[in-house]
Amino acid sequence: MEASLNMQQKLETKLSLTPQARQSLEILKYSLVELENFIKEEAEANPLIELKEIDSKHILEMARIQAPEAISSMKDESFDPLLQVPNREESMEAFLMEQLVLLKHLSKKDREIVLYLIRNLNDLGYLDCDIEEIAERFQLSIERCEELIAVLQSLEPAGIGARNLAECLYLQVVRKQDAPQNTVLIIQNHLEVLAEGDFQRIAKLYGMTNEEVENLFSYIKQLNPRPLREFLSSKQEYIIPDIIVEEMNGEYVIHLNDRYLPEVSINTYYVELLRANASGEIKEYLNTKLSEAFLLMRGIEQRHETLFRVTESIVEKQRAFLNNGKKELVPFRLKDVAESLGLHESTVSRTISQKFIQTPQGTLPLKTFFVRGVRIQGGEVESPLFIKEKIRAIIENEDTLRPLSDQKIANILLAEGIPIARRTVAKYREELGISQSTKRRRKK
After folding, report:
1. Is residue 37 within a helix (H) or strand (E), and if so which, with residue range?
2. CATH code for 89-153?
3. What sequence ranges are listed for the domain RNA polymerase sigma factor 54 DNA-binding (predicted)?
4. How far apart are CA 265 and CA 271, in angstroms?
5. What is the pLDDT of residues 232-269, one digit of tens each?
6. 374-440 adopts what CATH topology?
7. Rounded to whole angstroms, how far apart are CA atoms 118 and 134?
8. What is the pLDDT of residues 276-286, one digit of tens each?
9. Cα–Cα 20 to 30 A to 42, which of 193, 254, 315, 387?
10. C-beta atoms surrounding 2 within 10 Å
11. How far apart are CA 262 and CA 4, in angstroms?
12. Taking CA 305 as the corner, what is the angle to CA 301 and CA 309, rounded to the nearest 5 degrees?
């Protein structure tokens, strides 16, 4: 068998992003604070970029206080609102991403999905999205989604990515060697009973003494129900909205909160130098830096334009919420906005990532307005809030001597043309602050 060399021509089409497109996408995902940091970094590295700093009083005016104890700090003359903004390098996302990079066995798509999960963690470190939504978004099986959630949950701190308190505690206990016997089983099956202090019932169920149950309870109380508590310092008590929506004469007006950002302009001294007698390496250097400065300015402009357009779409769709509050949220997906604006879904995802909007109903994350609906009989889609109110009404009218289990509630909803799983009923019931059926039972 002879080996031979030959040349072949192959025609191949590849999508290649221009430097302008890459930078625009990068800028688009930044929150207001992150963008401010990025602009300053670019200005430090580019002498042609000139910044006009804003008055810090504007920052203080736009700050939305999350914790009452922070009010006293604002009265202190030495209080600097700039120091109350968390540094991007110290963020939760960066901390988790550093660990994700070390997991060499993950494919590029796996990393993309885990990053999406990271960006859907709430401030306490709990995963704030439905597994069905993840499966639909990335076209995965539920089993594969669970595997990737497990990857997130393997990161530090222990408990990260949990979907409820029981799972958060479980994730911490399984990493420890000193957990008392039956700790995992009790957390998974009888955490509410333990929290109620019914030690005798726990002791009877698991063949333990009351003293052993008390020791187990003390052990569980030492666990951390908030995995990201160490990240929640006073520096994160202020939210500066990226967008402000105000009602004026019955209409909603959108303002981009760009006055928080330093004004970016071109340093005229270097431009004149370039026009005058710059040559050789100096000319090449100045031209490069001038192009970079224009790229930055265009990227900021495109971010503002896209953010404004996405917000317009949100306001149009969720007007009832702006008028009446959270109960009026209607099903709304990233795909809906992408199709209406002619954008890619990932662009919309970047646009709403880590951004806040100030509305007549309060200052909220932009992703609040995106609600995954439940398809009911006849093909119509209802919001989870509608389903929750149905569950509340069913429970309010149940026989208190024989409260309905989550499965029975799911069966009732199915009979009304609303097919949802028992675990979804349990999740919505917990979010409504309603106890499970055994707790609701009343004695004669």
Report:
1. helix 32-45
2. 1.10.10
3. 284-442
4. 12
5. 543 444 577 889 999 888 889 998 887 778 888 888 88
6. Arc Repressor Mutant, subunit A (1.10.10)
7. 12
8. 766 777 778 88
9. 254
10. 3
11. 63
12. 170
